[in-house]
Write a structure and sequence with these properties.
By secondary structure, the protein is mainly β. The chain has one helix and 24 strands. The chain has one domain (36-294): TolB, C-terminal domain (Neuraminidase).
Length: 310
Amino acid sequence: MTCVSFPVELGRLWTACCFVGVLCTNHAAAQDMPLTQVLLDDAPWRLVAEGFKFTEAPAVDRNGRLYFSDVPSGRVFRLREDGKAEVFAENAGGTSGLMFGPNGLLFGCLNKAKQVVAYEPDGSFEVLADLPSANDLVVSRKGHIYVTSPKSNSVWLVKYGSTDKPQKVAEGFRPNGIILWQDEATLVVTDGNSPVLRTFRVETDGGLKFGAAYYSPLQTTFGETEPRSDGMTVDDAGRLYVATSVGVQMFDPTGRLGGSISKPQAAFLSNVVFGGPDFRTLYATSADKVFARRVKPSGTPSIVDRTTGQ
């Protein structure tokens, strides 16, 4: 073999080698997130609650207690300490999105009324905004509420505690599910029934930029072209979980699919969230029932200080 010498500066060569090393390291780390790091062998889906019409909008408070909506009945439920579901709010206007935010308040989307509201501990609520439609939401630690409005093909920003009017911050596609990365610098939104999830950079004023198809392709059931992607959640390691017709599809932080968790039942899977005292219980709302399973990673909500657990 003949060796050929090139006049390359040593400094540039060292920089190039370091850059390649970083790429290889990141690639290896991203590939090292299979479902075996998520699932427990002895912890399948278990039934938590049943007897509803259509469950949606799972959300947990700072103690990991689960709240969810039965959309057609106009009721929001929560789990008691004994594991039974009790009514938290009546006449909730077909609530299709729930999430706890600043001051421990529960924020919601009233789908029928096309409103964004803030619930008080007694189940009463204050209307924060009227929108063209209000399907799902995510709340940042700043009190920025991002709301999907499928009927207007847009995402809206409602600032809690501010006199600012609701602002349209993204449009041109059909959003449904929505979630923030743990650092709240990136927003993820489903794109109708397309097999992609869009990511936006969150600006300091709450605005959004870009909107690239970052997570793709989503899996579909045999013979179908639409994944029916809906609600999403994230864990503390940066994995993203999205409810689809296939099941709970899990993506690593680079946007690559790591695998799919089978649905708890054949019926439609609407949403997922981490909860329980240690936030290592994955809850799923599916048609008339709510399910749960223990998993290895935790998914700490934004209302909990991840450094102290408070």
